[in-house]
Specification:
Elements (H helix, E strand, L loop, with lengths): L19 E3 L12 E4 L2 H13 L4 E7 L2 E7 L6 E12 L2 E10 L8 H12 L1
Antiparallel strand pairs: 1-6, 2-6, 3-4, 4-5, 5-6
């Protein structure tokens, strides 16, 4: 299993499978833009936590000052995806949120991880 969390300012690298997206990926297949939040890190974190709290089948695993890790479980087959948020305050009024969403099993996710992160982006 991939070691999750932030290591030297980086989230874990996506494997070569098409079932992961990351704002720190260097290839087009896995890359997704980071989330941008107008406001400080504390408010950005609270906004993401509010989205997670109202989302079904989400378990918050790690809750740190600048990092969140949540498990999203699919409704039918109960597959678990790991979703990570790494908060970097660019200025008092702008916070970048690096993101990673990856399936634990299988090869393709049929775009589920990318759609999930874009849905979260739309709610910020």
């Amino acid at each position: 299993m991939t070691k999750l969390g932030v290591n030297n300012g980086q989230l874990a690298v996506c494997s070569n499978k098409p079932n992961c997206v990351s704002s720190q990926a260097e290839d087009r297949q896995h890359y997704i833009d980071p989330l941008l939040f107008t406001g400080d890190l504390v408010n950005a974190r609270e906004a993401v936590l509010a989205i997670l709290e109202k989302t079904k089948r989400v378990n918050l695993v790690t809750d740190e000052k600048n990092y969140l890790h949540a498990e999203f479980t699919s409704a039918v087959f109960r597959f678990v995806d790991d979703v990570e948020f790494y908060f970097l305050e660019d200025s008092p009024n702008l916070t970048s949120i690096h993101i990673r969403s990856a399936s634990r099993v299988g090869y393709s996710d049929m775009g589920v991880n990318r759609k999930r992160m874009e849905a979260i982006r739309a709610q910020l």
